[in-house]
Amino acid sequence: MRKMVLSFAAAAVALAVAAPAAAQYYPAPQPGPAYGQGYGYGRGNWQQVRDLRVRIDMIRRQITRLDRRDAIRGRTADRLLNEADRIDRRLHERARGGLDPREAADLHYRVQRLEQQVQWARAGRWDRFRDGRY
After folding, report:
1. By the 8 A CB rule, do 67 and 74 touch?
2. How would you classify residue 63: left for phi > 0, otherwise alpha for psi between -120 and 50, otherwise beta?
3. Entry pTM
4. Taking the CA of residue 35 as centre, how many other CA atoms within 13 Å lie in the half-sphere pointing to its CB?
5. Which of 110, 111, 129 is nearest to 62 (CA)?
6. What angle (nearest 5°) sits at the alpha carbon of residue 28, between those of residues 24 and 31?
7. Alpha carbons 84 and 111: distance in angstroms, whole number
8. Helices 46-68 and 101-130, interaxial angle, to 10°?
9. Residue 32 and residue 15: Cα distance in Å, rounded?
């Protein structure tokens, strides 16, 4: 009986000592690059590529909407849509292995400039109507 109580006590002490060690936090190992993500600095930033594609699609919709409402001229809309297509093709070519910081900055700049050109085209057309030139 005494041996059994001592063995249960020893087992309880061993469990009490081992429980805090088992409860410690160990971070999960970082996975290596998956297929298509590439190696190196700045690669694998697919959220940035998605954000740029969403911005380009929004610009296309805005240009189409403004063209339908005759808020901008047809030639201007064609030129702006052509520029959006060129930026999208460039993004598609560059994003195959992931964007490095220089490429990402260049594409951000081009998208931002296109957004600005759309706003200028819209404002310029509106000013012509407001001044009574048409």
Report:
1. yes
2. alpha
3. 0.60
4. 0
5. 111
6. 170
7. 8
8. 20
9. 36
Contact assessment for residue 37 and residue 44, using Cβ atoms and an 8 Å cutoff: yes
What pLDDT sits at residue 15?
62
Return the structure tokens found at 89: 């093709």
pLDDT (tens, 9 = 90+) of the chain, 134 residues, equals 777 777 777 777 666 666 655 555 656 655 555 544 444 444 557 888 999 999 999 999 999 999 999 888 889 999 999 999 999 999 999 888 778 889 999 999 999 999 999 999 988 754 555 555 55
CA proximity to 59, closest of 111, 99, 22, 11: 111
Buried b / exposed e along 96-127 (16+ C-beta atoms within 10 A): eebbbeebbeebeebbeebeebbeebbeebee
* Residue 29, helix vs strand vs coil: coil
What was the pLDDT predicted at 101? 87
Angular region, 60: left φ>0, alpha ψ -120 to 50, beta rest? alpha
45 Rama class: left (phi>0) / alpha (psi -120 to 50) / beta = beta
